[in-house]
Automatic annotation (TrEMBL):
Pfam families from the UniProt entry: ACT_3
Name of the protein in its database record: ACT domain-containing protein
InterPro entries in the cross-refs: ACT-like_dom_sf, DUF2241
PANTHER family in alphabetical order: BLR5128 PROTEIN
Domain of life: Bacteria
Domain DUF2241: 2-72
Length: 132
């Protein structure tokens, strides 16, 4: 099933959901072979500098992994196409206008935002306003 590409439909129908818990971004040098089952990352990405992991804060703490800050995970529930144009740009521009940083992650069905924990509720209010 193809995702939505119409920007107006995406913005009106994004239905942001604030997931439970706090998340962190950690990095491990190459060659890293972490026990991914124990860490249970919600995301990982191979970069030239190392392996980036996105995982729950308590899992990083238990593994002794360092991280620069904590984030809340917001899922934009609309099924967005991987070829949609301007959706994340519009969302991040709105958040940036209010001094809120965002780390977006595109997945097959939905876009996900990692918002600094201290600003998560502010971000949710702004995102929910798109639908009104």
């Amino acid at each position: 099933m193809a995702g939505e590409t119409n920007l107006d439909v995406l913005l009106r129908g994004m239905r942001p959901v604030l997931e439970d818990g706090e998340y962190v971004f950690c990095t491990l040098p190459h060659p890293a072979s972490p026990d991914l089952n124990a860490l249970a990352p919600v995301g990982l990405f191979h970069e030239d500098e190392g392996l980036t992991l996105i995982l729950r804060r308590e899992r990083a703490d238990a593994a002794g992994l360092a991280y620069p800050g904590t984030f809340r995970w917001v899922t934009l529930s609309v099924h967005s196409s991987l070829e949609a144009v301007g959706f994340i740009a519009a969302v991040s521009t709105r958040l940036a206008a209010h001094g809120i940083g965002v780390n977006p992650v595109a997945a097959y069905y939905h876009d996900h935002l990692f918002i600094p924990s201290a600003r998560a509720m502010d971000a949710m209010a702004l995102l929910e306003a798109f639908g009104r």
